Amino acid sequence: MFKYILMAVAVLGVIISLSTYTVDERERVILFSLGEIKKVDLDPGLHLKFPLVNNVRKFDARILTLDIPPDRFLTSEAKNVIVDFYAKWRIDDVGQFFRSTRGNERSAQDRLAQILRDGMRNEFARYTLRDVVAGERITIMGAVREAATPTARELGVTLVDVRIRRIDLPDEVSESVYNRMRAERERIAQDFRARGQEEAERIRARADRERTVIVANAYREAETVRGEGDAGSAQIYAAAFGKDEEFFRFHRSLTAYRNTLSGSGNMFVMEPDSDFFRYFTHPQGRMGIEQPSAAAPATGRR
Hints:
The protein is α+β, with helices and mostly antiparallel strands. Among the domains are: 2-59, no CATH class; 64-175, Band 7 domain (Tetrahydropterin Synthase, Chain A). 54% of the residues lie in helices and 21% in strands. The protein has eight helices and eight strands; from the N terminus they run αβββββββααααβααα. The strands form three sheets. It has a three-stranded antiparallel beta sheet with strand order 3-2-5, with no helix packed on it. A hairpin with a 2-residue loop joins β2 (27-33) and β3 (36-40). The protein is rod-shaped.
């Protein structure tokens, strides 16, 4: 008896599972009746259906990301750029989505990707390379989204946003651009160097001129001070010579002895009674002066 009860419970459970389904608030649901759409966008919760008559298809109602492989586009200057971009989309009309794509999400992504590529190609052809790199990204993305919106509605989806990740140049174009940028930077650097050298020469010339003026003024002041010192020295020597002529000569001879005999290995060939050694033999400095003899007769006229 218990065995039959378990079998009845199992059969009842299977019937209930085949007759009910749940709808999550993150899903869009289509209820089919013998292969035809009967209801769409059912409310979240538990629902009933007839087994073998009704079937249910569920689709993600959240915002989905469409990653598009990088592709090449031509600018108005006929220059290639490699654009990496993506799109945000969600299923808005689940019935139209099923009728357009048979519920194949991959098919919808492929058709959206082709629409967006065509839009990018048309928009990039309107701008130069400088425009698309510098400041027209937002304009391009907005124009592509606006152009693709009607076609997206035909698929039953809403195109939420289109974003450009990065814009690159092909290798051959990048190399030429880098070379041009390098040449431009070298030209600017050389201009700065030339200006710096010019300013350095100007500063150096001004410094040399100031140095020459300072040296000339210092030399003039030094000569003035030296002249004043020589004049003062001459006055002092003259005053000293006027007070005691013999002491002045004696002092000058001592100075000459010190300056002449201070070195080592000096040799002089001079007569002992020369005027240079007069203070060695006669402290008074008198040489060649003989005292008159007492016995010598005085001569003269009376």
